[in-house]
Write a structure and sequence with these properties.
The complex is a heterodimer of chains A (about 475) and B (about 400).
Chain A lengths: L5 H8 L1 E5 L3 H12 L5 E6 L36 E4 L3 E5 L4 E4 L4 E3 L2 E4 L3 E3 L5 H4 L4 E2 L4 H12 L5 E4 L3 H12 L4 E5 L6 H18 L3 E4 L3 E6 L5 E6 L4 E3 L2 E4 L3 E3 L11 E2 L2 E3 L5 E3 L5 E7 L4 E4 L7 E4 L2 H15 L14 E6 L2 E7 L6 E8 L4 E8 L2 E8 L5 H9 L21 E2 L14 E3 L16
Parallel strand pairs in A: 1-2, 1-7, 2-3, 7-21, 9-16, 10-11, 10-16, 11-12, 19-22
Antiparallel strand pairs in A: 4-5, 5-6, 8-17, 13-14, 14-15, 18-19, 20-21, 22-23, 23-30, 24-25, 25-28, 26-27, 26-29, 27-28
Chain B lengths: L4 H6 L8 H7 L4 E3 L5 E3 L2 H8 L4 E2 L2 H5 L27 H10 L15 H13 L7 E2 H6 L1 H11 L6 H14 L8 H28 L5 H7 L9 H17 L1 H14 L1 H9 L4 H11 L6 E6 L3 E3 L2 E3 L4 E4 L1 H4 L34 H18 E2 L2 E2 L19 E3 L2 E2 L2
Parallel strand pairs in B: 2-8
Antiparallel strand pairs in B: 1-2, 3-5, 4-11, 5-8, 6-7, 9-12, 10-11
Classes of the chains: A alpha/beta (about 475), B alpha+beta (about 400).
């Protein structure tokens, strides 16, 4: 409990430790200083470089238009921190309020912010993952290594997983004129995030741009040559793809292993926290000195039935980092809830895709503006008679309107007419989401139930 | 007899300072007078409606709307179809896409940036040409000729023809003003005539560019075929007319309002002299504080819409008072204070949504160049009239003349 003066003392001479030196951690640190935190601030990051921006890694960097080492995040203000970069955190002692580092150091804190994010899910068979030419794409090093390999002009690139990241990689390769195969376990690319109706458009788009798109298949094995370079991939339909570059794009794993045994409510689905970003312990009791933000956090959202929501979105990292920082340095009555409507964007095959809300929760979709056929449209998602999400293809300027509908829990299907209403938009369609228990490319929005201590989820690799 | 708020907005007597009327308006965020338009004056409501697909900008919907004596009548019954400003999707999107192909990203990401040296030279030349420094009319000598020259170069309109289309552009801009006292029939006739003349002039130019294409936008619009097809001559004419007028009648006011505001805020002017980079936030704050487009009077509801508890019926005309939203204290702290150091200046000055200002990147750059160079080169500038005389237009609001004096013009 913060008694009278305790908060002032914390602000004056407290010790705040931020584990995770990327977007959420940096914006949180800036907010702390902006709010007048004058104590010591330690930023711990497992990567050796200062905070950088990830979206360009699957876009401009792969096209050779931007360099991976030139994507440092702009600093909005000085954070005057002690940086411990290239040293991962390995443990947390909640009772002693200390973070253990890989080099054996221990860093004491009064307030801890965990923003360790996610990492790329690796190819499950280790010896195959280590073949030369097999990549994942998450970090700056991943981006520059893949870009270098694409510069060499590979004969064919195989992308495993047709989610947003995989589709962006395929798009960049096609733009560079490289032959690409995409292998997607679901019925179409983006199906987990946007459902079958919209995914069918994404599939057409890929094929039209020359992608060899294989859906409903799994990659069962990667095969290397005598020198340890990947040369082929074997698919579950019995076919073989000859390839010299494989990009494994199977979603992300939350970086919570270091918290195992600490007593914090952390597991494969992330760190459970309340709407104010305070982390729960394993018993479901909220802590008052440990906060979580960004991709690693999962927190209950009032618009989505108070289920815990995990978001791997850029905007969420910024907003949640700021909220966590604010709340760390506020009396309980002044704390703010993190209630932003989820939103993300993607750019692929010449199309700007944006989404708000949680489409994957929906059962129905209505194309309210434009048409699927023209590939320029807004789709509104409905769940139990209310608007729950929206997606746009080259129609992003309309999305703020739909965001308001989601916030107001407006009825679905919407009863009004709009400009540019087509035959598609006369009645709702089945949104056609795959069974969420079947893992595919990993949607970037995940609802994960009500239990703050859920540590049971396991992932069964494709085979 | 007291005037209604609507009449007060339009009353020329209030042109120099409409902001107290807007403050009064904001007490009723959805203001409606019998048979009149629904007037929206608060920031968040305007912003929502700018993104609302139940609102049409199509001139044809407006014409078939209610019998509103204040709304602009169907003045577009001329030879030209409406430009994309007055179209809804999908036609709007197609036309704007085809036009943007030669102006901005993704196809022409560097076009505006490449105009920097040219902008710099034009600004320099105009300031060099200033006559008697003790009596400068900034509008005549600078703010008007600058954007006109720029839009002419961009489109490929010969500079020597400027005087001719100056008259047409002025007449058309004046027709956008929903002035209740003007003779509507006379005004519409004048506008139709001007539009026709401008159309014929542009048609001749386009024909010539088709034969001898240059690297100007008119040539590119006339000769490009894309996935969206090729613009018909009529589409090309109305697009060119739109760009020409929009390029004429808005930037001039941004620059003039800018200099006026700087002269009223000498501390900011002084800072700009030594910090040219301050021009960027200054122009953004200007777009909030004195936006060249004060209100959007041409939108129609396609459905019943509820705004702040008021149901606006289908088929109503909306006026969105951007300049009022920009001064809404619910959104901006101390809104009547000109402060380029505001941490976030997300103004409505360039609109928002699909009709947000097409020429915004160019207008911003022009105003930044103009104000930083004026600040740097005019020695001890001061206002001779405050307030200056304004144009009649309540929508495209700005001084008709801005008389200033200075001790000299620095090289």
């Amino acid at each position: 409990m913060l008694g009278d003066g305790a908060l002032a003392q914390l602000k004056r001479e407290g010790r705040i430790v931020v584990v995770g030196a990327s977007l959420a951690g940096l914006r949180a640190a800036e907010t702390m200083r902006a709010k007048g935190f004058a104590g010591s601030l330690t930023m711990i990051g497992d990567e050796p470089c200062e905070p950088y921006d990830r979206p360009p890694l699957s876009k401009g960097v792969l096209l050779g238009r931007a360099r991976a080492d030139r994507t440092a995040l702009p600093r909005l203000r000085s954070v005057d921190a002690t940086w411990r970069l290239g040293v991962p955190a390995t443990g947390l002692d909640m009772a002693a309020r200390r973070v253990r580092l890989a080099d054996g150091d221990e860093v004491p804190y009064d307030r801890l912010l965990i923003a360790t994010g996610v990492r790329a899910r690796p190819w499950p068979r280790e010896e195959e993952a280590e073949l030369d030419g097999v990549f994942v794409l998450r970090t700056r090093d991943d981006g520059s290594a893949l870009a270098r390999r694409l510069d060499e002009g590979p004969k064919r690139v195989l992308v495993i997983g047709g989610g947003f990241a995989g589709s962006e990689v395929a798009s960049a390769c096609r733009e560079r004129g490289l032959p690409v195969t995409v292998a997607e376990r679901g019925a179409a690319p983006l199906v987990g995030a946007l459902g079958g109706v919209v995914a069918a458009v994404a599939a057409d788009l890929q094929r039209e741009h020359g992608v060899d798109l294989r859906c409903g298949v799994m990659v069962t094995a990667l095969e290397g040559d005598a020198s340890g370079r990947v040369r082929a991939a074997h698919l579950s339909d019995g076919s073989t793809v000859e390839t010299d570059v494989v990009v494994v794009s199977l979603g992300a794993l939350r970086n919570t292993e270091w918290l195992h045994g600490s007593g914090l409510g952390a597991g494969p689905r992330g760190i459970a926290c309340d709407a104010g970003c305070r982390a729960f312990d394993i018993r479901g009791i909220v802590t008052d000195d440990i906060y979580a933000a960004g991709d690693v956090a999962r927190c209950p959202h009032p618009l989505f039935g108070y289920q815990f929501l995990s978001l791997e979105h850029w905007g969420n990292a910024v907003a949640q980092g700021r909220i966590a920082a604010h709340n760390m340095l506020s009396e309980s009555i002044d704390r703010l809830p993190h209630m932003d409507v989820p939103a993300f964007w993607s750019s692929q095959f010449g199309v700007n895709i944006k989404s708000v809300g949680v489409p994957s929760m929906a059962t129905e979709i209505l194309i309210s503006q434009g048409s699927l056929e023209s590939r320029r449209f807004v789709g509104v998602y409905g769940y139990q008679g209310r608007v729950i999400g929206a997606v746009s293809f080259d129609h992003g300027r309309w999305l703020p309107f739909y965001e308001e509908l989601i916030e107001k829990t407006a009825p679905f299907p919407p009863q009004f007419t709009t400009v540019d209403r087509h035959a598609d938009g006369q009645r709702p369609l089945d949104a056609d989401f795959p069974d969420p228990s079947v893992p595919s490319h990993g949607p970037t929005v995940t609802l994960s139930g009500y239990s703050p201590a859920d540590r049971r989820m396991t992932f069964t690799p494709a085979h | 007899m007291t005037q209604t708020l609507l009449h007060q907005i339009l009353d020329y007597a209030n042109r120099a300072d409409p902001y107290p009327i807007y403050e009064e308006l904001r007490k009723t965020p959805v203001h409606h007078e019998a048979d009149g338009p629904y007037v929206i004056s608060t920031y968040y409501e305007i912003r929502s409606l700018l993104h609302d697909p139940r609102i049409s900008s199509d001139a044809r919907n407006l014409a078939s709307g209610n019998a509103d004596p204040l709304a602009e009548p169907a003045s577009e019954q001329s030879a030209l179809p409406p430009g994309f400003l007055r179209l809804d999707p999908p036609e709007h999107d197609r036309m704007r896409r085809m036009t943007n192909r030669h102006f901005g990203p993704p196809h022409s990401p560097r076009r505006v940036d490449q105009m920097r040296p040219e902008l710099h030279d034009i600004v320099g030349g105009l300031i060099d040409g200033i006559g008697d420094p003790s009596r400068i009319d900034l509008v005549e000598e600078f703010s008007y000729p600058f954007p006109v020259t720029v839009i002419c170069r961009l489109l490929g309109v010969p500079r020597e023809d400027e005087a001719r289309f100056h008259t047409w552009a002025d007449t058309l801009a004046a027709s956008l003003d929903p002035d209740p006292d003007a003779d509507a029939a006379e005004r519409d006739k004048g506008a139709a005539e001007a539009r026709m003349q401008l159309g014929m002039y542009l048609a001749g130019l386009i024909e010539e560019r088709r034969k001898n294409p240059g690297d100007d936008m008119l040539s590119q619009l006339a000769t490009t075929k894309s996935q969206d097809g090729q613009m018909t001559t009529m589409e090309l004419l109305s697009t060119a007319a739109l760009l020409l007028i929009a390029g004429h009648e808005t930037t001039v006011n941004l620059i003039t309002n800018g200099m006026l505001t700087l002269l009223r805020n000498p501390d900011v002017l002084q800072r700009l002299k030594t910090e040219p980079r301050l021009a960027v936030p200054i122009v953004e704050e200007l777009l909030r504080f004195e936006p060249p487009v004060q209100l959007l009077p041409q939108r129609t509801t396609l459905a019943d819409i509820e705004v702040r508890g008021v149901t606006i019926p289908k088929g109503s005309t909306l006026w969105l008072i951007l300049a009022s939203g920009n001064r809404d204290p619910q959104r901006f702290e101390n809104p009547d204070h000109f402060d380029p150091d505001r941490p976030d200046i997300q103004h409505l000055g360039l609109g928002s949504g699909i009709h947000s200002c097409f020429g915004a990147p160019l207008a911003r750059l022009e105003a930044q160049f103009a104000l930083s160079e004026l600040a740097r080169r005019l020695d001890n500038p001061r206002l001779l009239d405050d307030p200056p005389p304004y144009r009649q237009n309540a929508v495209l609001r700005g001084p008709r003349h801005l008389r200033i004096a200075c001790d000299g013009v620095r090289p």
